[in-house]
Write a structure and sequence with these properties.
The chain is mainly beta. The protein has one domain: Beta Barrel (Thrombin, subunit H), CATH 2.40.10. It contains 3 helices and 16 strands. The chain is globular, with a radius of gyration of 17 Å.
Length: about 270
């Protein structure tokens, strides 16, 4: 999983003079995507997000991976809902400069089963963050992402952007005790690294979030920690060293009720249930 690791890869080897790392698709495919509205955590990347139906008076939300949850990795089969939280992060502007510290007071939803996400409620409303800092939350797309589409993956942790393509979808992706479904498979040159965990996967054509970056195969091992494997229809596992993956986020929009809140009882809700 793409959590922080003490690698010598850090800024010296990866950061370009512009502060933007390009991998995979041509740079021009995602020139509109910046680091604006991303949130840097102590160990991961995150972003300021909204549902398509959110309104300015709603509490703002922060999205990262389930394995970035402050309580540590969430065991397989466990779903967390409406837990108190005091998680904080640094809201960034388009060039990666710190704008403010934002704080969460609740874990709205978190799991590492079926998908790998943590969604927090912040103490400020969307309107407050907009008026004070000019922050505009990224919208979580309600549509399934498309194979071949160009995406940008802005990492607030590294303050860099990976420009890539979605090459295909993996029906079952397994890593250690966790299993994820309909995962995004990036083009082979999309070499996201540790610290990019929780980065939003942004559709380069409309700026909406279609996924969340979560893992990659480091060593070519089969289905071990930091070495996810793909499971085919016959149950055979395949490992591809260097391959990186993400998880879809439109699932959230299938579970939003009339009060703009996650409700797992909504008909057609795709998020993993307790």
């Amino acid at each position: 999983m793409r959590v922080r690791r003490a690698l010598a890869l850090a800024a010296a080897g990866l950061a370009a003079a512009t502060g933007v790392l390009i991998g995979g698709a041509p740079a021009q495919a995602a020139t509109a995507v910046t680091l604006a509205n991303t949130i840097s955590l102590s160990n991961c990347s995150a972003s300021l997000v909204r549902f398509p139906t959110s309104v300015s008076s709603d509490r703002a939300m922060m999205l990262t991976n389930g394995h970035c949850y402050e309580g540590g990795f969430i065991n397989a089969g466990v779903v967390l809902q409406n837990r108190t939280s005091s998680r904080s992060g640094t809201l960034l502007n388009s060039s990666g400069r710190a704008l403010a510290t934002v704080r969460a007071d609740r874990v709205i939803y978190a799991t590492m089963t079926g998908t790998d996400v943590t969604l927090y409620r912040l103490t400020s409303t969307f309107a407050t963050l907009s008026s004070r800092y000019g922050a505009t939350a990224l919208t979580i797309s309600s549509a399934h992402p498309a194979a071949g589409s160009s995406v940008a993956i802005p990492s607030s942790y590294w303050k860099e952007i990976w420009n890539c393509q979605i090459s295909s979808f993996v029906p079952t992706l397994r890593e250690d005790q966790w299993t994820w479904h309909d995962s995004l498979r990036y083009d082979p040159n999309c070499d996201t690294i540790h610290g990019t965990s929780g980065s939003p996967i942004v559709n380069a054509s409309n700026g909406q979030i279609v996924g969340i970056n979560n893992t990659g195969n480091d060593d070519g091992e089969m289905c071990t920690l930091n070495n996810p494997c793909e499971v085919d229809a016959n149950g055979t596992t395949h490992a591809y060293q260097g391959q990186s993956y993400g998880e879809e986020t439109y699932w959230f929009t299938t579970c939003v009720n009339a009060s703009h809140t996650i409700d797992l009882t909504v008909a057609g809700c795709l998020l993993t249930k307790p």
